[in-house]
Amino acid sequence: MKDHSRQPIGVFDSGLGGLTVVKAMHHFLPSEDVVYFGDTARVPYGTKSKETIIRFSIENVKILLRHNVKMVVIACNSSSSYALLELKKRFAIPIVGVIEPGVQRAVAVTKNKRIGIIATPATINSGSYQTQIRKQAGRFNVTAQACPLFVPLVEAGWTDRQVTRLVAEEYLRKFKKNNIDSLILGCTHYPLLKTTLRKVLGPDVVLVDSAQQVVQAVKERLKQSRLTHHQKGRGSYRFLISDEPQHFLKSARRFLGFPLKSVERCDPQGL
Ligand code: DGL
């Protein structure tokens, strides 16, 4: 059988946010090579329809396959919610989304069985997190809230401003009322809001970071499929985006934790 373990892992997102997943991969899977595609020309996905998100997601996987990836990680929650099943049907390589791993963690950490979910309108409307919680844990008390203003606030770098805190207070009001003890950050951008979310919710609510959880799932999947790359040094990273690179290059550091040297531009519709 052919050994595919040396091939890179493909990661895609609607734009910048999926870099939070790459950051976790850099930490927990340091020897893997990674090809990242951010669909910056068509972001945001979180306000788009199911059909559109599926179509974009298929095109994104095709881009990654041209780079010979051994596995695809859907870093985007909106894509994972609507497109995971369709992508698994269409493509033969392993495909991992963020929903199931995020829920596994939330179900494991909650003590009072009251879980909150914050995400884009697409993810909340899809019911993906709610369905997965029911599947894994049965009848937990689940409170879900779409937070469409969070993505633009994070993109603007306003993660710790007064206005962001006020918006967070508005969005999180019902979670406080419902006494949740764990909150799923169901959007790639939200890990950057942890400080503000903690200030609003207090220290006792566990913030479940789907980006970190998915990397644990990827690690498991690589092992199961005998795809782990056992090279010594650090893996290499390649970044592709579909629009001009300036904003991406400027903002990437906040999401990744280290600066980006270069990005390449490619057109998902030009395949
Ligand atoms: N990546 C998206 C998600 O996790 C957030 C940004 C967008 O709306 O495209 O749902």
How much helix, percentage-wise, in residues? 40-55%
Structural class assignment: alpha/beta
Contiguous helical run count: 11
Largest sheet: 6 strands, parallel
- Give me the count of strands: 10
Strand content: 15-25%
* Tally of discrete structural domains: 2
Could you say which small molecules are bound to this protein? D-glutamic acid
CATH topology call of the largest domain:
Rossmann fold
CATH C-level label of the largest domain = Alpha Beta
| Envelope shape | globular
Q: Give helix and strand order, one letter per element, not per position.
A: EHEHEHEHEHHEHHEHEHEHE
Q: Mean pLDDT score, rounded? A: 95
Distance between the termini: 30 Å
CATH architecture assignment of the largest domain? 3-Layer(aba) Sandwich
Poorly predicted ranges? none
Explain how this protein is built.
The protein is α/β, with parallel strands linked by helices and 271 residues long. It folds into 2 domains: 154 residues, Rossmann fold; 112 residues, Rossmann fold, CATH 3.40.50.1860. Helices cover 46% and strands 16% of the residues. It has 11 helices and 10 strands. Helix 3 links the parallel strand 3 and strand 4. The chain is globular. The mean pLDDT is 95. The structure holds D-glutamic acid. The site of D-glutamic acid (DGL) has 17 residues, from helix 3. The site of D-glutamic acid has 17 residues, from helix 3.
SSE inventory with pairings:
Blueprint: E1 9-13, H1 19-28, E2 34-38, H2 50-66, E3 71-74, H3 77-90, E4 95-96, H4 99-109, E5 114-119, H5 121-126, H6 128-137, E6 141-146, H7 150-155, H8 162-177, E7 182-186, H9 194-201, E8 206-209, H10 210-224, E9 237-241, H11 246-256, E10 264-265
Parallel strand pairs: 1-2, 1-3, 2-9, 3-4, 5-6, 5-7, 7-8, 9-10
Helix pairs in contact: 1-10, 2-3, 4-6, 4-10, 8-9
The structure holds D-glutamic acid.
